[in-house]
Structure to design on (305 residues):
């Protein structure tokens, strides 16, 4: 049964297709404000699509199985170990299917360890730029105890106040804000602000220069979906940037099943004095996900072996 689940989950991985016209310039020159505004308007149109107009690569109904398959391997175990007093934030939740399945009997059957501790399970918050709730969401939400699950939409993560969201033990993002935000450093700072000390954020990026490739050095020789460049145009790995965040413990690996490079991350908050190295957005082209290039404002300090 487990093997069948993994095969099914692999089918949930997004197809990757990007028009060559959306590729960023090799010079990493900052785009004029009017071009940036136009790209963001085009991106907003994608969020507004409904029915048959929704792009095939803009997936809004990912199952919890897909989360377990595409995020780092310990995500499901971390989720299963949450108790009734904990909170889970799912960013880019779409229809909220993963959250609904967390409360189902199948999740307990496949994760028997810790079932007593889970009790009625953690409180869950689904966050989406658009409202894609289904009749199933409303039915299950009504059957659960009041306040057990909630669905927030219509605003970006940075637009919510701390009082509106509260704090969380676990946050997840499967091709959500981490893949779509035009201000990645601000996004990460906000995520870590929302996590309790000891809490973890699980996410991933598709078509990036992986940590192992970056460590070999050399100039940029390919176009990536998300890229960080130093002032001299040399590539800075996403993992290397994340590992420079103060008060964060970072784990990175690559998904071996994908021909397109997919890098997966767990960022665990270790203390409250979080500091995120600032990135300056220099290129943004609408897509699912968009093409983004950032420039590192200050050099990254060498990492110890």
């Amino acid at each position: 049964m487990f093997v069948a689940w993994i095969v099914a989950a692999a089918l949930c991985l997004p197809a990757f297709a990007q028009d060559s016209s959306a590729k960023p310039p090799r010079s990493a020159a900052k785009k004029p404000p009017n071009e940036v505004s136009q790209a963001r308007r085009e991106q907003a149109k994608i969020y507004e699509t409904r029915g048959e107009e929704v792009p095939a690569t803009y997936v809004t109904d990912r199952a919890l199985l897909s989360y377990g398959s595409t995020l780092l391997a310990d995500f499901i175990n971390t989720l299963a170990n949450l108790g009734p007093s904990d909170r889970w934030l799912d960013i880019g939740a779409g229809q909220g299917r993963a959250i609904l399945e967390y409360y189902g009997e199948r999740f307990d059957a496949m994760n028997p360890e810790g079932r007593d501790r889970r009790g009625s399970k953690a409180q869950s918050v689904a966050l989406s730029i658009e409202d894609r709730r289904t009749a199933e969401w409303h039915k299950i939400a009504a059957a659960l105890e009041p306040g057990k699950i909630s669905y927030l939409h219509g605003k970006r993560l940075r637009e919510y106040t701390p009082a509106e969201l509260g704090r969380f033990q676990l946050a997840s993002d499967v091709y959500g804000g981490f893949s779509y935000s035009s201000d990645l450093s601000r996004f990460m700072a906000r995520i870590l602000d929302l996590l309790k000390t000891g809490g973890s954020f699980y996410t991933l990026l598709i078509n990036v220069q992986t940590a192992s490739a970056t460590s070999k050095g050399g100039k940029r020789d390919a176009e990536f979906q998300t890229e960080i460049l130093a002032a001299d145009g040399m590539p800075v790995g996403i993992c290397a940037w994340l590992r420079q965040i103060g008060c964060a413990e970072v784990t990175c690996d690559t998904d071996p099943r994908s021909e397109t490079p997919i890098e997966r991350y767990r960022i665990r908050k270790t203390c409250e004095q979080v500091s995120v190295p600032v990135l300056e957005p220099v290129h943004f082209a609408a897509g699912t996900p968009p093409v983004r290039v950032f420039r590192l404002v200050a050099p990254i300090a060498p990492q110890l072996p």
